[in-house]
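User:
I would dearly like some help making sense of a protein record. Take your time, and here it is.
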Amino acid sequence: MSSPLLWTLVALQIAMGAFHELSERLAWRPSQWRELALRSARNLVYAVLLVAVGWSEPHGLWAWLVMAVLVAEIIITLIDFVEADLSRKLSASERINHTLLVLSYGAIFALIAPVLLDWSELRTTMVPAYYGAGSVIAGITACGVILFGARDLVASRRPAKSNAGDARHLVEPLATRRVLVTGATGFIGRRLVEALTAAGHDVTVLARNPLAAHSLRPPFRLVTALDQIPNATTIDAIVNLAGEPIANRLWTTAARRRILRSRLKMTRDVVRLIARLEKPLGVLISGSGIGWYGLWQDEELTEFDGGKSSFTHRVCEAWERAAKRGQRYTRVVRLRIGLVLGIDGGLLARLLTPFEFGLGGPIGSGRQWMSWIERDDLVRLIAHIIATPSLTGAINATAPTPVRNAAFARELGRWLRRPTLLRVPASLLHLVLGDFADELLIGGQRVLPDKAQSSGFRFRHEKLRDAFAALFCRPLTDVRDGGPSTEQPGGQADRGVKAA
């Protein structure tokens, strides 16, 4: 058991398992309760194996028991992989990770099995052993997998309900429309397509990777390039959401170019499509972001305010300028989207794991504003814009009650019943992440949806507490009162937070 190769493989297995746990975020997907139960069992088996192999020499019957546990882990893993493949669409990275996990585990088994067979011939006893760093890693990892296993077990017992039920009600204002959606496989696009198809609309989806479109709710028409759409096609609305995710990686020079280029290329292609259509398009809704406004303090920002120079402003300004070229052919709406809240993607999905383990808290001073919108409200707003010919130009897609970061953290902690005491220093974030942290984490904007509300749109989730109640499928009375409300009318939130 002291083989360096063995412990190297164990370390790789641990790293790949941790990546799998943290990247897939299954604990908040109610439909995956079977997979969560299997993962809980696997984690318990892993913990037993890590303690047995890392801190002892099992002899006699104990050696046979450890081999039985090794075989049981293989069986549970195979069932888990089959369940995952049947119940959801696995990404390419997850399939690769599954394959590597199996290969690594097979190599570990091949190294351990001969040793266990030799030990099985000895008198039955458990001899304490210590393998230096290997034992320490095994012990720490065993504690970690027990925690994740307990979390998965609790998650598997949650009621199998989700706010992402029948989505047709989200597009009620619309008579039957023919809608083209770009960026349809993203966090927002998936829900929009689901709502439109469920309500019986004629939906065309642009997906450069056809495999990614398998996760979408049929029926829809799939194209992999806009030039596949004939000139005689009738389209009532185009919703352009395509673009490289802005918060998925550090802003290196190459990443900044990809972020900008992906948005400009797609939007220019969309405008060219509009120009060649024989029948006029009803409306182009082109995505943008509240990053257009740059970084502000406590000023309330509406669509009639200007922006400040920053990377996100430059990206959004160029994106919107490309969309404006479509104004000679159709009505154009530039949708400045805030922080979109949903369980299965976006900001909230990234925060759930650390907050669930009690590792959440404010970022920096906690005084920066977070202008958010619940995902279903965003889909409803898109439908409202399509159905309202008077809406044009820039429109803020944010709830009417933005909150400070400290208030957001505190409210999320209340709903998860966890403390939110760990404040992340702004100086550390700036040192490690640079402009990425300054614009997306430490800075913020206090954006209000003036034009949307003036046009008659009514948010179902105006306050953060209402949004969390819908997302976590729990009544408002179910959250304990941990102090004053995080929100007040007009966005006057959390005035008492002091700068760190």
Summary: Residues 311 and 435 are 8 Å apart (CA to CA). The radius of gyration is 26 Å. The first helix runs from residue 4 to 24. Residues 4-156 form one domain.
